[in-house]
Amino acid sequence: MSTRRKGYWLLAAGALALAVLAAPRLARGDRDDSDKLLDHYLRAYNNGDPAALAELYTEDALFLPHERSIVRGRKGIQDFWRRRILSDHLRQNGRPLLIKTLGENIGSDVGYVVGAFERRDGETGINFALGIKRDDKGEWRIAAEVWNSTELKPRYQPAS
């Protein structure tokens, strides 16, 4: 084989390698995987397990609960959930939390889910947005969570 022909083969092989490396990773049941994350979230909450909830977050996750300080990191999030679960009398009295998904966009490695927490009777009170991403093992984790409440009255009224 001529030197010129070898050069073409090397160039073609290099281009193929770059194309494979640069191509986006194929979606691996991404929607089903993100639904599984929400299922684990609900099960952990309804079972009163703050450690299981915290495992669903990235190590450096940010959590912005409504009208509370920002919570940073998995340990802080576990502490938040421990306090929150202890104060949820509805959960303790057999009214489990449900999630109503309002919108989502799931890619191969990152995505978001927007929804509302509700009870079986349709009562809602907190809307949420989750920023999710895959960890090194390919599992979805919550990187950021933001809440806002629909129950609270405004703190101020506009001037009339």
Q: Can you put this structure into words, describing what you see?
A:
The longest helix is centred in the first third of the chain and has 20 residues, at 3-22. A hairpin with a 6-residue loop joins β1 and β2 (71-72). Residues 6-29 have low confidence and may be disordered. This protein has a single domain, classed as Nuclear Transport Factor 2, Chain: A (Roll), CATH 3.10.450.50. It has helices spanning 3-22, 30-46, 50-54, 73-87, 89-92, and strands at residues 57-64, 71-72, 98-106, 110-118, 124-134, 140-149. Strands 2-1-6-5-4-3 form a six-stranded mixed sheet. The chain has 160 residues and is an alpha+beta fold. It contains five helices and six strands; from the N terminus they run αααββααββββ.
Label this structure with key terms.
Nuclear Transport Factor 2, Chain: A; 160 residues; single chain; 5 helices; alpha+beta; six-stranded mixed beta sheet; 38% helix
